[in-house]
Amino acid sequence: MKPDRPTWILFAGLSLLGFILWLRLSCPQLEFVNFSVDREKAAGIAREYLRARQEDPARFRSAVVFSSDDEADRYLQYTVGFSGLVQFIQKYDFDLFYWAARFYRENEKEGYKIFVSSATGEVIGFQHIIDDNAAREPLERDEARRKAVEFLRERFQFDIGQYAVKGDLVTVYDNRSDFSFSWQRKDVQIPWSPRENSSPGEPDGGTGKLLVSAKVTGQEVLSFGKHAFLVPDQFSRYLARIQDTGRILSQFIYLLYLALFTSTVFFMIVRRNHLATHMTKRFYIGLMAFSFILSLAAVLNQWQSILFDYNTTGAFRIYIGQIAMQALVGALFVSVAIIMPGLAGEALHYQVFKEKPEGTFLYYLRSTFLSRDVAKAILLGYGVWIIMLGIQSVLVGLGQRYAGVWVEHAWMNNLSTAYWPFLAAFTLGLKASVTEEVMFRLFAISFGKKILGSTVAAVIISSLIWGFSHSNYPVFPMWFRGVEVTCLGLFLSWVYLRFGIIPVIVGHYLFDVFWNCAEYMLGVTRPFYFFSSLLVMMLPLAWAAVAFFLNKKTELQPMRWRLNKHQLYNLEVLKIFLRQHPEEIRQKRPQEIVDEISSHGWDPAVVEAALEDAGIPVPRP
């Protein structure tokens, strides 16, 4: 259905409301992010720090990744809320986000890790990993402590009067002794208790503490940390139990997904000779190939993460070989996850939703992707995106107020390590939107309608499966993400059934890309990140602009088989046969003719084409 004037007014109003809700409820959670230091600058700072320690960085392989203190993020949001987290960061100059640079050599234990603030470029942590048998000159505990305090005072203006001793440990090796010291800040004692069991007089659940630390051996400071947030062990165990809920839900939903995917394979095989499948086959093969290439490009884009995770006890080439094999298999699976539900969904939708042709790619393959109707559908997708933001903001806001919901910021790490974060966001957004909308809207709703006979039941079940497949995301309690995405799925299903597949894919794409680029557009960041993120968000708009100005006519072409030379030859033979037996043909119904000729081994595509040329209506399911 094409959107009319009341629809545009409705979507404009809902989009405005969604934007206001998002601006009020969600936007502040992104504005505090500071990415003033990018990966290249952080790498330069790390190399300069090594040179200052009389070490040549060129002797090592290196990798730099973006990271965050996830434990502190979880604990502080749980205990003091998001606003309390921001206040804590500002008050204690705490770096929730940072760059981690690693320098290492193959088959050697010795290496370095340097942690650089993404906001200021300050080196906030350091580790020199050395072999257990490495020798250092003897040192007394008191002298080691004095060196640690002097170092921290000189580097971070450490005021020991504000701290109490937390740890004082010596580790004795054959050729040296390592002295590890840590101090906790006296004015930081943040208690917690399980919300569902909290009551007066319950056992102490421990407190969160802010630490500063240093390790000394011989005349060297082996490691130090400006700040580390110590989370109580009881909280970690409590969180693990919560995460188990998400894992159980995910495993159950995974079984349902496998059943759904198996159904796509079954229906693709059963409907392999359906004309809708035939006419969209090349399109989906192209999508599959493009997805495969994007998946491999995404792996290369995350090359720094691959280098960072290398375990130096194994051969580097074997490690890279394993990564390459995993990348190929993963890219192939994601690609297959497009073509199977796509082809099956096209045939099923043609059967059960003939009155809603815009719900398939077949409709646009028979007409055009470059009409003003398509441009309007894309613009509608932008409205869908903003409304989704509003729905999510309301749900999360209510969850934070009444259900103790909190959201990790670890998702910001997903793309920041990439050489081109905007390309990573585009890859993620495109693959997720196409794969999931084809599976859970195009196929699952059509499949549910055919099996259950109810569109409403099909929408609810497909939305539940899609929603709770996200239960392992870093949103606590773990079940909440499933509820949130299910609600978004119900909205997307309504849009899909009313306006077709293009608005839901565009809206879903923008939603995913936005949440993976929002920190670059709303936080403090480098201009390159801001403008490249904006460009990725505007790609559908560029498609809409081209479609608007070209304005090709939306005329549905007749559905017809694309025949090869061998099939064309057989077509002529069959047409001659039909012309030679007109009386026999007139006495039979079209379906009887198809069944009889096909029973003799004739290609169904040739049979249908011959009947069409003879003016006989072709029966199609």
Q: Summarize this, please?
A:
By secondary structure, the protein is of the alpha+beta class.
Strand content: 5-15%
Oligomerization state of this entry? Answer: single chain
Figure out the total of helices.
Answer: 21
How many strands? 11
Query: What profile does the largest beta sheet have?
Result: 9 strands, antiparallel
Distance between the termini: 22 Å
Number of domains: 3
| Overall 3D shape | elongated
Computed Rg? 30 Å
Task: Return the average pLDDT rounded to an integer.
Answer: 89
Helix content: 55-70%
Q: Which ranges are low-confidence, i.e. pLDDT below 50, for 5 or more consecutive residues? A: 197-203
The helix-and-strand class reads: alpha+beta
Structure characterization notes:
With 621 residues, this protein is an alpha+beta fold. The protein has 21 helices and eleven strands. The chain has three domains: 5-25 and 252-276 and 341-550, no CATH class; 32-231, no CATH class; 565-613. It starts with a helix and ends in an 8-residue tail after the last helix. The strands form two sheets. Strands 1, 2, 3, 4, 5, 6, 7, 8 and 9 form a nine-stranded antiparallel sheet that branches. Strands 10-11 form a two-stranded antiparallel ribbon. It is elongated, with a radius of gyration of 30 Å.
